């Protein structure tokens, strides 16, 4: 295993992390846990430890995950593991602290190494966090009392000033965010995090990073001789200010493909290969959609709140491009049909809410304004399916 300094926390963080979102028994935290599921979860933890992965991250909203980790983490040498959980901010800090205490009760630990305010995705949730006497002040008091060692936040926001403004608040030690080859649009947040020496954890590179555990044959061909998963690992970790990727494993073998990135990182001889694959992907995208569209489709797009029907134009066009260029239709459908069902975690609606409405005003800054309504209709026809409910509740 390789390690990187996790920003101003000064922790040595493994570049691969064991994420606790997907190996738990149930999304309902009071559900009973079967022997088989608990044994599988513990086998994942044991495999992680054997690989040198000593960071385990979960959340109050991950169903039975905390309770199940609480059966094994206290058995490990405490000084050799890093444990993180996440609790969503609340309008009332008292409720936030009650949720924190419930997490600690389930994890059966005296302190956390890392504690995150979970899901600062909107201005409202940012203000619940950073206002005087808000949830961040409550978390920093826990830090002063030794209950937690470092305080950070997670966000699913993309292209949002909320994410950058939370970083610029200056009181957070680390951030969990989305950033991968198929969705690189949080670059301003990475720059802000580097300027303030925050630890950076990348959320869900396997799933939200392209459903890379089930890639399209075209994507497999384009990233050869690497797998799509290993390519994405190397693409992300090529940046020294990205410190770790959170792997939401479901079985001990789920670590294996990611391990292939480690010799490449250690030798430093992967950069030319990654650059070649990135060039091939870019050229394929341009062949499929045209160079002008490939280079500028995202320019001048409105936020979903400014679009008639609150349609998430940016996300719809992003998924459309991946589906057309790389045959990532299944991934596109999974993400697109969350629109309207993901609350603040995945805001906005699908393109069928437009119903012929005039988009000229909201698209006035886009160089592709005349084309976009037709492309949105095509994207809906390609990607629409049964609505998808986001896993978990927060």
Properties at a glance:
alpha/beta; 16 helices; two-stranded antiparallel ribbon
Task: Give an overview of the whole structure.
It is a single chain. By secondary structure, this protein is of the alpha/beta class. It folds into 2 domains: 266 residues, NADP-dependent oxidoreductase domain (TIM Barrel, Alpha-Beta Barrel); 94 residues, no CATH class. It contains 16 helices and 10 strands. Helix 2 links the parallel strand 4 and strand 5. The mean pLDDT is 96.
Short description:
40% of the residues lie in helices and 11% in strands. The protein is an alpha/beta fold.
List the total number of helices: 16
Major sheet: size, sense and barrel closure? 8 strands, parallel, barrel
CATH superfamily of the largest domain: NADP-dependent oxidoreductase domain
The secondary-structure element order is: EEEHEHEHEHHEHEHEHHEHHHHHHH
Low-confidence stretches: none
User: In CATH's first tier, which class of the largest domain applies?
Assistant: Alpha Beta
Number of domains: 2
Strand content: 5-15%
């Amino acid at each position: 295993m390789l390690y990187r300094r996790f920003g101003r926390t000064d922790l040595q963080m493994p570049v691969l992390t064991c994420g606790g979102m997907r190996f738990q028994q149930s999304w309902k935290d009071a559900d009973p846990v079967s022997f088989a599921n608990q044994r599988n979860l513990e086998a994942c933890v044991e495999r992680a430890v054997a690989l040198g992965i000593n960071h385990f991250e979960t959340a109050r909203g991950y169903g039975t995950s905390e309770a199940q980790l609480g059966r094994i983490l206290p058995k490990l040498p405490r000084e050799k593991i890093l444990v993180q959980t996440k609790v969503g901010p609340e309008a009332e800090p008292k409720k936030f602290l009650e949720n924190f205490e419930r997490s600690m009760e389930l994890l059966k630990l005296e302190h956390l190494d890392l504690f995150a305010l979970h899901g600062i995705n909107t201005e409202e949730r940012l203000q619940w966090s950073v206002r005087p006497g808000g949830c961040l002040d409550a978390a920093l008091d826990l830090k002063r009392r030794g209950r937690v060692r470092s305080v950070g936040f997670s966000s699913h926001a993309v292209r949002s000033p909320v994410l950058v403004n939370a970083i610029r608040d200056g009181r957070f030690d680390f951030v969990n965010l989305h950033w991968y080859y198929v969705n690189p649009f949080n670059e301003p947040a990475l720059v802000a995090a580097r300027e303030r020496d925050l630890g950076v954890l990348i959320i869900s590179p396997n799933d939200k990073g392209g459903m890379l555990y089930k890639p399209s044959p075209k994507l497999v061909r384009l990233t050869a001789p690497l797998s799509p998963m290993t390519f994405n690992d190397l693409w992300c970790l090529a940046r020294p200010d990205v410190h770790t990727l959170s792997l939401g494993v479901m079985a001990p073998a789920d670590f294996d493909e990611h391990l292939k990135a480690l010799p490449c990182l250690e030798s430093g001889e992967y950069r030319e290969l990654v650059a070649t694959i990135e060039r091939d992907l870019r050229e394929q995208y341009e062949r499929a959609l045209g160079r002008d569209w490939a280079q500028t489709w995202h320019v001048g797009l409105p936020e979903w709140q400014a679009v008639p029907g609150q349609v998430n134009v940016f996300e719809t066009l992003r998924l459309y491009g991946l589906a057309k260029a790389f045959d990532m239709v299944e991934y596109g459908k999974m993400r697109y049909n969350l629109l309207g069902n993901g609350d603040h975690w995945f805001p906005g609606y699908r393109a069928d809410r437009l119903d012929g409405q005039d988009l000229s005003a909201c698209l006035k800054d886009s160089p592709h304004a005349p084309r976009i309504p037709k492309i949105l209709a095509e994207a809906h026809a390609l990607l629409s399916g049964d609505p998808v409910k986001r896993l978990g509740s927060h």
